[in-house]
Write a structure and sequence with these properties.
- The protein is α+β, with helices and mostly antiparallel strands.
- Among the domains are: about 1-90, RNA polymerase sigma factor, region 2, helix turn helix motif (Rna Polymerase Sigma Factor, Chain: A, Orthogonal Bundle); about 205-320, Nuclear Transport Factor 2, Chain: A, CATH 3.10.450.
- The protein has 12 helices and 6 strands.
- It has helices at about 15-25, 30-40, 40-60, 70-85, 130-140, 140-145, 150-165, 170-175, 180-190, 205-220, 225, 250-255; strands at about 230-235, 245, 265-275, 275-285, 290-300, 305-310.
- The chain is elongated.
- The two termini are about 40 Å apart.
- The relative contact order is 0.12.
Length: about 325
C-alpha cells in the first residue's frame, strides 16, 4: 500500500511529526500494557513499545488511514510481540512449573527460567466502569500468567477480542488474516484458557484494615499474626526462587525458619502492581540505610490474603521509578 498523510485540508495543520506524536502518545500506556500481557515482562514491553513507535514513524508515509491510527499501531505492536515471543521461552511462575515445596528444604534460585515480571499499575482515563473492570482483571498476575501458557497467536487473539474489544474484522486486519480464522482461533483460545476464579473483593475499608494489619504484622515479624491473615489454602511464591508453598501452615513455617528478615527490621512501602495491592519491602541495615528485599504483590479477597507473589529479584525495584 502506498499513501501519504494529507496536508491540503483547510485551516492550520500541524507538521506531520507533531501530528504523529499528538495522535499516538495518548496510546502509549495501553500499547505498553498490551505488550506486557503478550510477553509477561515490563522490561521487554518497554523495548517493544519503543520499537513499535520507531516502525510506525518509519512507515508513516504508507499509512493510508483506511483504519484508525489505534488499529494500525496495534498491528505493528502485536506483530512485534509475536516476533519477540517466537524467539523466547514463555515466562512463568514457580507454581506453574513444580509441585509445592517442603518448608524444611532450602529454597534454590533458578536463573535459567524466564520469570514473569510484575507491572506498576497505571490509569487510563475516559473509560466506562465495565472497561475499567476488564482492564483491572486483565492486568492481574494470575491472568497474565495464564496468558503465557497459550500459543502466541492465540494469546494475541484472546487479548485483541476479549480485552481490547476489537471487532473480528479489526482483529483480522491486525493479524493479516480472515474473520473466519479469527472467530475459530479465538474460540480455541477461550477453550484452552484456564481462567482463575474471580476474586471476591472486600470493600475498600475492609481491604484497608486487612492491609494495615499485614504491614503491622510484617514490620514486627510476627509470623502467627501474618499467617492469621491468609486463607487456609493460600499460596506463597517468590521468583526467582523455585520453591513455593500452599497453605497458611507451610507459609508460616517458611517465614519462621527461612525468611531472613528479623523482627523490627522490615519496612513496607505501599505501592500498586498489576492493579493489585503491593508492598515494596525493605530491610533496615545496621548503618541506617534501607536495602530492597522483595516486592510483595497480593491477591486479597473477602476471606483474607489468597496469594502472595514475593519477587525477590532486586531488579523489580527498578520498575517503581
Amino acid at each position: 500500500m502506498v499513501g501519504v498523510v494529507r496536508t491540503d485540508s483547510p485551516g492550520p495543520r500541524k507538521s506531520p511529526d507533531a501530528e504523529f506524536v499528538a495522535q499516538t502518545e495518548a496510546l502509549r500506556h495501553e500499547l505498553f500494557a498490551h505488550c506486557y500481557r503478550m510477553l509477561g515482562s515490563a522490561h521487554d514491553a518497554e523495548d517493544l513499545v519503543q520499537e513499535t513507535y520507531l516502525r510506525a514513524w518509519q512507515a508513516l508515509g504508507s499509512f493510508e488511514r483506511r483504519s484508525s491510527m489505534r488499529t494500525w499501531l496495534y498491528r505493528i505492536a502485536t506483530n512485534a510481540c509475536l516476533n519477540a515471543v517466537d524467539a523466547a521461552r514463555r515466562r512463568a511462575l514457580p507454581m506453574q512449573l513444580w509441585p509445592p515445596s517442603v518448608p524444611s528444604d532450602e529454597p534454590t534460585e533458578r536463573t535459567d527460567v524466564p520469570w514473569l515480571e510484575p507491572l506498576p499499575t497505571y490509569r487510563i482515563g475516559g473509560v466506562s466502569p465495565e472497561e475499567a473492570a476488564i482492564e483491572r482483571e486483565s492486568l492481574r498476575l494470575a491472568f497474565v500468567a495464564m496468558l503465557q501458557t497459550l500459543p502466541p497467536r492465540q494469546r494475541a487473539l484472546l487479548l485483541l477480542r476479549d480485552v481490547l474489544r476489537f471487532t473480528a474484522a479489526e482483529t483480522a486486519e491486525i493479524l493479516d488474516t480472515t474473520t473466519t480464522a479469527v472467530n475459530s482461533g479465538v474460540r480455541r483460545a477461550r477453550e484452552q484458557a484456564i481462567r482463575a476464579q474471580p476474586v471476591s473483593e472486600p470493600t475498600e475499608p475492609e481491604r484497608r484494615r486487612l492491609l494495615d494489619r499485614y504491614v503491622t504484622a510484617w514490620e514486627a515479624k510476627d509470623v502467627p499474626a501474618i499467617v492469621a491473615l491468609f486463607t487456609e489454602d493460600a499460596v506463597w511464591e517468590m521468583p526467582p526462587l523455585a520453591a513455593w508453598y500452599r497453605g497458611a501452615e507451610h507459609i508460616g513455617r517458611h517465614l519462621a525458619d527461612r525468611c531472613p528478615v528479623r523482627p523490627g527490621q522490615a519496612s513496607l512501602v505501599p505501592v500498586e502492581m498489576n492493579a493489585q495491592p503491593a508492598f515494596a519491602t525493605y530491610t533496615l541495615e545496621p548503618d541506617g540505610s534501607l536495602r530492597p528485599a522483595f516486592l510483595q504483590v497480593l491477591d486479597v479477597s473477602t476471606e483474607g490474603i489468597e496469594h502472595v507473589y514475593a519477587f525477590v529479584d532486586p531488579s523489580v525495584f527498578e520498575l517503581l521509578h
